[in-house]
Amino acid sequence: MGGQVSGSQYYHGELSDVWFDDAYHADLSGFFDTATGKAKDLGANGELPTGTAPTAYWPLNAADPGRDASGNGNTLTVNSGPYPGGRGPNEYWAGSMQGNGTTQFLKRTSALNGAAASGIFSVVWAIVRNTSAGGRIFHLNDSSTGGEFYIEFGSTGTLAVIGKNSADTTIFNLNKATLSSSGVWEIYHLCIDLSSTSLRHLYKDSAAVGTITWNNYADDAIDFSVDIAAVGGAALSASASDWWPGKIGFFAFYPGQYIDFSQEANRLLTVDAFGYPVYLGERGELPTGIPPALYLNRNFHLGTDSSGNGNNFTPQNGPVDGGSVRGDE
After folding, report:
1. Gly residues bias located where (predicted)?
2. What does the pLDDT look like over 198-241, one tens digit per residue?
3. The pTM is what?
4. Domains contained in the chain, CATH given
5. Which end of the chain is more exposed for a tag (fewer CB within 10 A), N or C?
């Protein structure tokens, strides 16, 4: 595979999953979903399309690229170390949603279960920011006069993360100018412990972000228990600049949990060395052993919370499936 049995003709490009059977199969619907334009899960042994395992099935998993998963023992020897960065359709893919920047977002009109006031939080998110546009990624707010928390990007790529206590006083204010590029996937890691200025770290695509302006950083508790939440827009009344006009994916929010993202080993718990999201467990529990308060991933555009805490959101005006995070790169 990728070359001649003998000779020097080698394939220069990428190969995905290879499924081979020495039989005729007329129905190919088990391999590809025409509605979404995505390859289907073929099963652990490649058995799902036809009901039985094929003669050979090479998932080409980056961690074990030559393994035959069919059970027939047709494993290949990896020669000359082909670059293992390609990702086949049955490796892990994270989900996302696409908003239109004017009306489409996710909303929740009750407090997040498992989200109490705290001076500690960790959050991971992926985005594609449309050209010359910005908006809110995540917003917690109180319908009266309580606390608030939000993550937003400006039209020039500026990042702002704001946190208020239950008295509606700003105690946390992060600002970074010209951080986000447009039209490409970016993955962010942010961890904060307000008890110490040495416990605050922001990473973009696994690179530390420097020259951050900390306008407020008080040893207090951000009120994460407020009663309205939004993803891709504002929780309460919004202006045109609040709606997110791009994609948001792979959102894991850990209020009260500090994951030290300054340690590469901890970043690799959520994103692999090639910059792709990794499997966090059914409830997002693998990085810390405790599920996040909110984990939006599969069926992201439907507002489905995978954390097990029941923090589902209601789609507003039909946000659509944004595809797999970095699946189009």
Report:
1. 320-329
2. 999 999 999 999 999 999 999 999 999 999 999 999 988 767 77
3. 0.76
4. 1-91 (no CATH), 96-321 (2.60.120.200)
5. C
